[in-house]
Amino acid sequence: MFSGSIPALVTPFRDGAFDERAFRQLVEWQIENGSSGLVPCGTTGEASTLSNAEHHRVIEVCIEQAAGRVPIIAGCGSNDTMNARLHLNFSKKSGAVAGLCVAPYYNRPSQAGLIAHYSFLAENTDLPIVLYNVPGRTVSDLKPETVIELVNRYPKTFVGIKDASGDLSRVTDHRMGIHHAFAQLSGDDELWLPHSAAGGKGCISVTANVAPKLCSDFQAAIAANDLTLARELNDKLYPLHYAMFADASPAPCKYALSRVHDWMTDDLRLPLVKVGDAVKKQVDEALENAGLV
User: 66 FRET partner, CA 20 to 30 A, in 10, 17, 22, 28?
Assistant: First the structure.
């Protein structure tokens, strides 16, 4: 259902408020440069700092601006199951093609709790769901056997996974346990290449915010099985992948975007703060390596 370079979009702020004009420009730039889908209100979009009204407005604007040219996978995750359902049902009504649902954070549910959480969502929404596993942030870890059980139990609902566990063996685990179409997307930019070799279909990417053309060209090289070109492009992107996490994300990404576009600020919401000089230097060098400045 999904493949390619899919940026997890930042949410631009200006003077403390959602900068709708800059966000529309970002969506347009992404589509013009080959992004194959867009994810508003994910981790990179600082969803945890948005009110529900802001969260829904960001999704609305993304869908309006994309105007059906690329699929929108709306960030719908929450550690409150009922709030996740609210986001999913709103996104369905607004025209998203799927919801990205992170494993509940802070609560630390067991595998049985994760199955119950996602089963409730599957039974109470009509929107397809892309699972999102990022145990480094959530503590809870969607184990392969849990993913396989959910997908096989609700094959029409759970259509893919963004996996940021860092464990590449899970791509094969999922492939061997799921016997129908299921989109495995890397959640770690630096593992995009080996993830694809194991059977992945693309990446929900932080770096693609800043380098959409390079990332879409990279994915095209992988799809064409041109490993020489893929490695060449990966080398250009690799320092940028790491620079995006040289400080709490999306602070480095927003700084990078402010270097690339004069219509983008590096404003964040507390508890995140702007990057310091050392991180700026790392990002600047990575942007130069990628030929972006």
Answer: 17
